[in-house]
Recover the amino acids of this structure.
C-alpha cells in the first residue's frame, strides 16, 4: 500500500458519521446494508449519507452494488486490512514480543 492510499482511507474515517457508517457495515458483513437502512440506523438524512458513502467509496473502504432499486453497501475488509498492515508493518522494530499484545487483542474479533 502506498502512503497516499493510507492517507485517503484514514482521512475518510476521520469524521464521526463516516466512521460509524464503516463500523456498521463491518458488523453486517458479508451481506451489507441498503443505503436507506444505513441512513435510518445512523439517523442521518439520505442526501448527507450519500455524500459520506461517496467519500468512503473513493477511499476504497466501501463498495456499493445495485439490487433492484436499492444500493447495497459493504465494507471492503481487504482495504482496511491493507491500511492496518501499512500502519503496523514495522511494528516495534521487528520485535515480535513487543507486538504480541496488539496482535492478541486483534485475534479474538475474528
Amino acid at each position: 500500500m502506498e502512503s497516499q492510499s493510507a492517507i485517503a482511507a484514514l482521512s475518510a474515517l476521520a469524521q464521526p458519521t463516516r466512521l460509524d457508517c464503516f463500523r456498521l457495515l463491518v458488523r453486517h458483513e458479508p451481506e451489507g446494508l441498503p443505503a436507506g437502512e444505513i441512513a435510518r440506523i445512523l439517523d442521518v438524512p439520505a442526501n448527507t449519507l450519500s455524500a459520506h458513502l461517496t467519500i468512503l467509496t473513493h477511499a476504497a473502504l466501501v463498495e456499493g452494488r445495485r439490487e433492484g432499486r436499492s444500493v447495497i453497501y459493504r465494507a471492503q475488509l481487504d482495504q482496511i486490512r491493507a491500511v492496518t498492515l501499512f500502519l503496523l508493518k514495522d511494528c516495534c522494530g521487528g520485535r515480535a514480543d513487543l507486538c504480541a499484545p496488539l496482535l492478541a487483542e486483534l485475534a479474538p474479533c475474528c
